[in-house]
Specification:
With 538 residues, this protein is of the alpha/beta class. The chain has a domain of 76 residues. The protein contains 22 helices and eight strands. It has an eight-stranded mixed β-barrel with strand order 1-2-3-4-5-6-7-8, surrounded by six helices. Helix 15 packs across helix 19, helix 16 crosses helix 18 and helix 18 packs across helix 19. The protein is globular. InterPro entries: EAL_sf, HDOD. It comes from Polynucleobacter campilacus. This is HDOD domain-containing protein.
């Protein structure tokens, strides 16, 4: 017997763990492009769905109740218990039993920073809708240089009205005048002071809901750098544009002046954005009125002034695409690419982006093919049907190209989450459907007529032409996600695409966008979050 035996040590007593906490879902929902007069994307209005934080809270509360029920039943299997309802978007209510309609700043920040919405923008701006009561310190967490903040005029006027009640006498309203040099000057509304303060540290504000001139507008306009006008509901748009552009604005001292910039291009001139531009006719009307930019999906519809420079180049690309779908040898592929200037030009750009990371700059088309890989060339040839070899717009800022690329990547990602045997075929087919879904915009033929000329699976043609089958439903979901149609997304996720959730839609949309950004442009030099933190410290 050993003098000193090993002392057995009992395991530490651990308190029973409660149910694992559920993190909030991604509140990102979709985005709408904002395009300048040169038909280049300058930014997107970002859409978010409300209630994601509250939903996580309610689910966690329900899980706690379920854990307590489980303990009770373990102690007494015959105990009577009442199970709480599942938490869904339909039955989600706040503490006052009201439907949740407003996205919180915390939810937006979570999506922007943690979920990658900011990175998905690449070099473009993200326009975000906020409310007057959100103009506080928490707002400083949003990078000023990247995100113009959008406020509705009706909410501003309501905030001013609430601050200074109509029955208050003029004498009383002048008591607390902010101008010590002129004690009779009326008090500056608090919301305008907040806008001024935030503007002074670099934030850009966007005014929406303006329809006519009214008394007091001259005090509000100088706080804004952008004004959005709904061309469908504004009668005298030309006079409003003239008034806004004539409004004197302070020089932007936070943004560095760009070399060769024209006078006023530092942001000191108010920029006018037309909204609800959904058809080429809307675009022509807005352009003739003098708008600087246009928000909407008008560019997906054929129009002589907006169309790509079509012709033999595009027929050659279709021929090349047919070759690619037959798995050609590399030398065959290179020979055919060299006959296609549109493909050759943009594949060199894409390869150069890769080369910036791999330090192997391509010297010719063959180098570009080796760097990018045959499968990637096949995909980009399909997508480059939507590029314009003669346009002066960069690849990542071409609206139609970016839309169809992101759609194809989204459909590929989402298709992987669908169950086997759902009639999908493969994720490659999902990508193909997304990539060819706007092909009828390029030629004066229907999509079925064009696609029937190529050896494509029937499910691909039917999905594009008729939105039929699982691929057709997935394409419809992609279209709904692009415009932030929450109701349509919910409907589709509850139907044949039931294995997908709204969180899946948000995550896959963002990953699709980031994939496009990563493959077409290098990361910006500035870290917008570091700059936001520096602004907070100031």
């Amino acid at each position: 017997m050993a003098l000193f035996g090993k002392k057995t040590q009992s395991a530490p007593v651990q308190a029973p763990k409660g149910p694992e906490k559920v993190a909030p879902e991604n509140s990102y929902l979709g985005r709408e492009p904002i395009i300048d007069r040169d038909q280049a994307i300058i930014g997107y209005e970002l859409f978010f769905r409300p209630g994601t934080t509250l939903k996580a809270k309610r689910i966690n509360e329900r899980n706690e109740v379920l854990a307590q029920i489980a303990k009770r039943l373990a102690a007494d299997p015959k105990a009577e218990v009442t199970y709480p309802d599942e938490i869904t978007e339909a039955n989600l209510r706040d503490d006052e039993d009201n439907e949740v309609k407003e996205v919180t700043l915390g939810e937006m920040l979570y999506a922007l920073k943690t979920k990658g919405v900011a990175q998905s923008l690449g070099l473009h701006l993200g326009f975000i809708k906020i409310h007057p009561h959100q103009l506080g310190d928490e707002l400083r967490g949003i990078p000023a240089m990247k995100f113009p903040l959008q406020i509705d005029l009706a909410e501003i006027l309501e905030a001013i009205k609430t601050e200074v009640p109509p029955d208050e006498t003029v004498k009383d309203s002048k008591k607390d005048a902010k101008n010590p040099d002129d004690p009779d000057a009326p008090k500056v509304p608090e919301i305008l002071e907040k806008l001024e303060k935030m503007s002074n540290i670099g934030y850009k504000f966007v005014l929406t809901g303006l329809t006519e001139v009214f008394d007091g507008l001259e005090d509000i306009l100088p706080k804004f750098r952008y004004v959005k006008l709904d061309i469908q509901h504004v009668e005298n748009a030309a006079s409003l544009i003239e008034l806004c552009k004539a409004t004197p604005l302070p020089r932007d001292t936070k943004s560095p002046a760009k070399k060769g910039a024209k006078a006023g291009s530092d942001g000191a001139v108010m920029q006018m954005i037309a909204t609800h531009v959904e058809t080429p006719e809307d675009f022509h009307k807005a352009r003739d009125l003098g708008f600087d930019a246009y928000e909407g999906f008008y560019f997906i519809k054929p129009d002589p002034d907006l169309s790509l420079h079509r012709g033999d180049d595009y027929r050659k690309i279709l021929k090349l695409l047919t070759l690619l779908l037959s798995s050609p040898e590399l030398h065959e592929l290179v020979d055919e690419i060299e006959l296609n200037p549109v493909v050759a030009k943009h594949l060199m750009v894409i390869a150069e982006v890769d080369a910036g990371r791999k330090r192997a700059k391509p010297e010719n088309v063959r180098d570009a093919a080796v760097i990018s890989g045959v499968k990637r060339i096949t995909r980009w040839t399909q997508l480059l049907l939507y590029a314009d070899s003669k346009a002066k717009v960069s690849l990542e800022s071409t609206p139609l190209l970016q839309l169809v690329c992101v759609r194809a990547f989204f459909m590929e990602l989402a298709s992987v989450k669908l169950p086997a045997g759902a009639g999908l075929g493969s994720s490659d087919l999902a990508f193909l459907v997304g990539g060819l879904s706007l092909i009828d915009n390029l030629f004066d033929e229907s999509s079925r007529e064009i696609l029937s000329k190529f050896n494509l699976p029937g499910v691909v043609v039917d999905a594009i032409a008729d939105r039929s089958g699982v691929l057709g439903k997935l394409l419809t979901l992609a279209e709904a996600a692009e415009i932030g149609d929450l109701e349509k997304c919910q409907q589709l996720c509850a139907g044949e695409l039931g294995s997908l959730t709204l969180d899946d839609v948000a995550q896959d949309s963002l990953l699709a966008i980031k994939t496009f950004v990563a493959q077409t442009q290098l990361a910006p030099d500035e870290d917008v979050w570091e700059q936001a933190e520096a602004t907070e410290e100031e």
